[in-house]
Write a structure and sequence with these properties.
It is a single chain. By secondary structure, the chain is of the alpha/beta class. Helix content is 37%, strand content 16%. The protein is built from 13 helices and 15 strands. The strands form three sheets. The chain has a seven-stranded mixed beta sheet with strand order 4-10-9-8-7-5-6, with helices on both faces.
């Protein structure tokens, strides 16, 4: 007899003890009990290929022994003292981040979640510029605190009934569904040009910063066109405003570069990171140039930020990415996956668009009139789950099949994913 209570009883307890804001995937969700690199296992022993990685968290694979062994050693020696005391791991991790991040980013502040990192990045921008006005992008998502939720441009995630003021939203660079009705490249990056119009007409003229994900994850893996971020950075510099880049989902080799913003040849003023830095261990950071960071002088600490175990996990992750060349694997397997999905879209018209970089790929499911085919996608994801594939879902219309697997996946894994999607679409005449 199984010692596990099963998904029905878990759902009963969830309904009774967990706040109802927390939903879950699948009508019949598996009860996961084990992870091993790119695979998950449920309470019945069934194996699943994980194509979502906890939403870009497990870049180095589930329960990666090379990483866990170092964490176990640290736990057995010193687990926690708070970062107001002197330990070595967090300064070594900050040094390593300064080496691998783009441009002149140098000084870090460690915390525990992506929301905290974004909140800290926004605070630093306000301290440096002495302004509390911000610009964000439509359909961006930056966190669950009051300020980061207010800067989130997706209605379903803006649950605060009284959002913070002083925030303006610019059109997001979503070429498949351009909010301005334009076509790239004839548009001359009108979505970027709108940033200047917003600064001149809707702010004091001195905003602190614009915050943007380098690739919009929850929006449906929206990738800006070439030149977009360069134009935005030029406009911001003209008004002495900063560019904050949110790499919470996109960082640490996911895009085929260490950080996705490197695909756009732009250096952010402040950058936030989280998720994959700990490979499942809670850790995040915001990092900036010395000039900007050195204005943050009043007392600041984070109880769990950069604790010895989280920091050694971060160091082990960066070592593993380099040692096993995950940047190259993400680029190669991402190209294989993207090309395969494009080929499927030629035969299955329900796939309206395929986009992404590296192993962050979205396939947008649409009806003939281009309206979101979210019900069909839900059905397809349930079928794929039954076949042993865990694939994500995002998009404003909840109609984008999201592939964000561990970066260790193999060529055969990708072939298996593509074959499974093809089989399910064929079976259901989609």
């Amino acid at each position: 007899m199984s010692k596990f209570i099963g998904f029905e009883k878990i759902l009963e307890k969830k309904k009774k003890y967990i706040m109802p804001c927390l939903g879950h995937f699948y009508k019949e969700p598996p009860q996961f009990i084990k992870g091993d690199m790119q695979y998950l296992f449920d309470a019945n022993g069934k194996q699943y290929l994980d194509c979502y990685a906890g939403v870009s968290v497990i870049n180095c694979g589930h329960c990666n022994q090379e990483i866990i062994s170092k964490m176990i050693y640290q736990i057995q020696n010193l687990q926690h003292v708070c970062n107001i005391y002197l330990t070595e791991n967090f300064v070594n991790l900050a040094e390593k981040l300064a080496e691998v991040t783009p441009g002149n980013l140098q000084k870090s502040f460690f915390c525990s979640t992506g929301t905290e990192a974004n909140e800290g990045a926004l605070l630093l921008a306000s301290i440096y510029t002495k302004s509390n006005e911000f610009i964000a992008l439509q359909s961006g998502l930056h966190g669950r605190t009051k300020l980061t939720m207010s800067l989130t441009g997706i209605g379903m995630w803006r649950t605060d009934p009284n959002p913070v003021g002083g925030i303006n939203f610019a059109p997001n660079p979503y070429c498949y569904r351009c909010p301005l009705g334009k076509k790239y490249p004839e548009c001359d990056l009108e979505c970027a040009n709108k940033v200047e119009e917003i600064i001149k007409n809707f702010t004091s003229g001195k905003p602190a910063a614009l915050i943007a994900e380098s690739i919009q994850g929850n929006a449906g893996i929206v990738v800006p066109p070439e030149g977009y971020f360069k134009r935005v950075k030029e406009i911001l510099s003209k008004y002495n405003a900063l560019l904050i880049i949110d790499e919470v989902q996109t960082g640490f080799a996911r895009s085929g570069k260490m950080f996705a913003i490197e695909n756009f040849d732009v250096e952010p003023d402040i950058m936030s990171v989280a998720k994959a830095l700990g490979n499942g261990q809670p850790i995040s950071a915001f990092i900036s140039t010395a000039k900007i960071a050195d204005t943050y002088t009043r007392p600041g600490a984070s109880t769990l930020g950069g604790n010895p175990v989280s920091s050694v996990a971060g160091l082990a992750v960066l070592e593993y990415i380099e040692k096993h060349n995950l940047i190259d694997n993400a680029a190669k397997r991402g190209k294989q996956l993207k090309n395969g999905l494009i080929e499927l879209s030629r035969r299955h018209k329900i796939i309206g668009d395929v986009r992404g970089l590296g192993l962050m790929i979205g396939a947008e499911f649409v009806h003939a009139d281009k309206s979101p085919a979210f019900e069909e996608l839900d059905f397809i994801l349930e079928e794929l789950k039954n076949l042993g594939f865990i694939i994500g879902k995002n998009g404003v219309g909840r109609n984008v099949m999201a592939f964000q697997p561990p970066l260790i996946i193999t060529e055969k894994n990708v072939d298996d994913i593509l074959n499974a999607v093809d089989v399910v679409l064929d079976k259901n005449n989609l």
